[in-house]
Structure formats: C-alpha cells, structure tokens
Amino acid sequence: MDSSTRGFGREGGEKVSAPPVGVKAVIKEVLRTRSGVAAFILLALIIGMAVITPFYAPYNVVKTWNDPKAWVLNPRSAAPEWVEFFYGKRMPRTIILERADFKKSYTTLTSQQVTIKKINLRASFNYQYDDFPSEFKIVLNASTSKSIRVDLSLTRPDGDKVALISTSLSSENPTLTLDSGGDEMKKAAEQYVLSVTGNRSSIILPQVVFFAQKGENIGSPSGAEVLKGRYRITAECVTTDVNGDVDIQFIAYGRVFGLAGTDSKRRDLLVGILWGAPVALAFGLIAAVAVTLIQMFFGVISGYFGGKTDVLIQRVAELMMIIPFLPILILVSFIYKTTIWTLLAIIVGLSLVGSTTKVIRSMVPQIREEQYILAAVSYGASSWRIIFRHIIPRVLPYTLSIIAMAVPSYIFLEAALSFLGLGDPVLPTWGKILGDAQAAGAAYHGYWWWVLIPAGCIGVTAAAFALLGYAFDRIVNPRLREM
After folding, report:
1. What is the predicted pLDDT for the residue at 7?
2. Helix (H) or strand (E) holding 250
3. How would CATH label the architecture of 91-253?
4. Half-sphere exposure (CA, 13 Å, Cβ side) for 163?
5. Could you give the CA distance from residue 218 to residue 203 in angstroms, rounded to a whole number?
6. In this structure, what DSSP letter does residue 141 have?
7. CA dist 450 → 179, 209, 276, 340, 462 (Å)
8. Which of 155, 323, 434, 451 is most exposed, with the fewest beta carbons within 10 Å of its own?
9. SS3 at position 213
C-alpha cells in the first residue's frame, strides 16, 4: 500500500486521507486554503519590495546611510507626501536653487588706479504651498584672494525687500552658511516684524516671518498666513579682486518627502524600508531553513538508529534548549563587530539540535515500522537510502510547517538586535530604523511614520509566514485537515 494513500484513524473510526508527500504536493494543497492564499499575497508584496530595492536604492546608496553629508538636501523629520490628502492642504516640498539657477552680472569700475568689481546674483522661485517651510538654508561660497562684501536680500511677492545679511567673505573664510535657526536670520526676521507691526515678537521663526502675509500675526507661527507668489533672492557683491567670484545655494526645506518621509538625520526612510525587506527575508529564511533542516536531519538519525546515538542527540538537544540564546547573541554582538552574516552563522551554530530534533524524532519510530519501510529493509536497502528516500520525504511536509512558523521569530530576533544597536552597522534594517526612532523620541514628537511604517513591515512579514505556517499545519496535521 502506498504511503500517500494510507489513512490516519480518528475517534469513532472516522478516517481522513494522509497528508501529501513532497514539496510540490504540499504547496499545491496550501494554495487551496484561504490562509495559504492570503500568505502568498502578503509574501508577494514583501518580495516585490525586495525586487525593486536595487533599482530605487542601489548598494552605493546604502553605503551612505550613516553619512550625514549624503542627505543634506532632504528636509528633517518630514512626513510622507501622501499625508496631504488627510490634511486637506498642499504641503510644501523642498525648493533648491543651485549655483546654476542664479543669474550673474558683472560690472567693473576703475578709479584712481583701483579696480572695483561688482557682482550681482539673482534667482527666483514660485511658492504656492499652504504651509510654511520647515526651515531654510543659504550657502555663500567665494573664490577670491582678497575679500568680497556681500549684501543679501529677499524680495517678497508683495514687493517688500528684506535685508538678510551684510557680511564679508575672504580667502581665509570663503564659505558662510546661513541657517533659519541661526542668530543672523533671527535678527533679520525680528527687524522685519518690527517694521511691519511696530512691536518686537518674543517668538521669531524666520521661515514663518519671511513667507507670511503682512499683518499683526506675521510673527505668530500659529496665526500667520502663507504669502504665495514669486520670491527673489538677490546678492550684491563688491570686491577689489578682479578674478573674485561668489556662488550661492538656497534651500527651502519642505514638510513632506517621498513615500515614507525622513528621519531626524534627513535620511530617506524609503531607502531603509526597502532594504529592510531583502535583509529580513534573507535573514529569516536562511536561518529558519538552515536550522530546521539540520535539526530535522539529526531528529531522523536519532529516531531511526536509536540506542546510544538517540540518547546522545537527545541529551545535547535538551542542553541546547536551556542555553540562554538571546543573551549570548547580545554578548557576542557587544564584544565583537558583527555583520548580519556573522549573526546568522552564530545562530546556526547554536541551533544544530533543538526542539525540532525532538519533534521529528518522535515521528520517525512510527514511520520506520510502516510496511513499505519494512519491505525496503527486507529487499536489502541501506539505512541511509531508507532515510533519504523514504523517511525524510515523509517528515518534510511537517518540516515546511516548522520553517514557516520559525521565520517570524528570526525576523523579530534580527529586529531586536538591530533595535538595541547590536545588528549590522552598515545595512539599514527595520529594527535599526525603530531603534533610531526610539533614540530620537519619534513617538513623543509625533513622527508616527518613523515608527508605524517599519513596524508595519515587520508585522506584515510575520503575519505572512504565520498564515503560511497555519496553512501548512492544516494540511499535514490530520486533526486540523479540512474534509
């Protein structure tokens, strides 16, 4: 009688068909269940993220994840762009004026054997958003052997010209960065508020003052209204160096960015979210498959050969099961500089035998006594042939169920280590993103996208494998199989 057609008894003499044998047969049965279909849909979503990752964020982008200079053009702690559908207004995006966007004009005057060079720079941008920029930055860069006097101003759509700063750049200090949170911009904003309202404001936010409509509330972050229209940046420069020149970069940072927003270090969280998918899948699947198959193999050997071999494997398995697993990983990660592959090797090394070994071992003696196994023995088949040709195919469907159930635990393990700062120092992972969010107080400050998106990815991936494991269990467990 073939093993795939034998029945398993139930109370009352009721019989059901035996579980399918082989990977293809099991997967075919899984796709007939609702939980199996749901699992494959969720897995397709996660795998799709992993597939598009190299196209959106190649590995050279990942290598700059911890480099602050690589993200300076992104807004800080910006929400995803799609949140504006819930806010009901158009949220500002980042506006960047590079050196090529500024029109230059040069004038040279000679008086009493002294040559004076004037440089005028002008650039404009159209601001049509319903909220103020989160901040702005102006970078002045001079190339001169002497010094250059720079008068920088902002002309608003209502015609007002706001003097931003008058300063000098020299060969010793050729670069000046003006930040909306700096004292220079605050003084300029304070003077403009005073000229409009006649009063000094206690709270000065230059990114609000310079982009607000004139009125009593121009200095109030909550009461001011956005002044839409075309703004112009003008720089009037004077130097005695005929070869001197000045370049300007202007950045008005938005409040939304991309599909996943940014963190407090201006990093595009979508890069980390996408790279978290292949890392989580690779780590979880490799760890679960390697550990489960190795433990299954030792379980088959233990149950088939019995005797001293059985006793030795079972005692070692019991010893490994009581060893504190997570503290050892934390200790190793804390002492040594680990990569994700090092962690994976340690996990496999500490899990050669375990609970799966004992589960499979309990199944093998019953399978060994079945008629087709006894027939193979009587025909002179070797023990290893019986193990690989007959016993392992019988326990493999159960093993697939254990693998599917184990993947989420390894994904959570990697996320926990990364959350504690003990994971791979280079690769961005979902756990590392959550750890950075915790360290920056993202939940307290209301940066919900920084927490919910990576946590949701972990949850969806875990749910996919949990549903897949449940579908496997319904197929291979006679008491749960659908009639």
Report:
1. 41
2. strand 245-253
3. Sandwich (2.60)
4. 9
5. 11
6. E
7. 25, 29, 14, 23, 19
8. 323
9. coil
Report residue 379 as tokens.
């025909």
Rounded to 5 degrees, φ, ψ at 196 are -85, -45
Contact between 46 and 462 under an 8 Å Cβ cutoff? The reply is: no
Task: Say which amino acid occupies 432.
Answer: K
Strand order in the sheet with 175-179: 95-97, 245-253, 135-143, 175-179
Predicted local distance difference test score (pLDDT) of residue 479: 55
Helix-helix angle 392-419:340-349, to 10 degrees: 130
Judge whether 151 and 235 are in contact, CB under 8 Å: yes
pLDDT, position 9? 41
Q: Where are the domains of the chain?
A: 3-65+267-476, 91-253
Site of tokens 């494997």: 313
Say if CB 295 and CB 352 are below 8 A apart.
yes
The Cα 268–Cα 266 span in angstroms is 7
The pair of structure tokens assigned to 316 is 């070692």
pLDDT at 341: 83
- Going by C-alpha positions, the residue among 174, 447, 445, 444 that lies closest to residue 433 is 447
Among 1.10.20, 1.10.1760, 2.40.50, 1.10.3720, what is the CATH number of 3-65+267-476? 1.10.3720
Per-residue model confidence (pLDDT) at position 10 = 42
The per-residue pLDDT for 21 is 57
Relative to beta strand 175-179, strand 135-143 is antiparallel
Cα first-last separation, the chain: 22
* pLDDT means over runs of 10, the chain (483 residues): 41 49 70 86 91 87 87 94 92 94 91 84 95 94 91 94 92 91 91 87 86 88 91 94 92 95 94 91 91 94 90 91 82 78 86 90 87 84 87 86 89 86 83 92 93 94 89 69 45
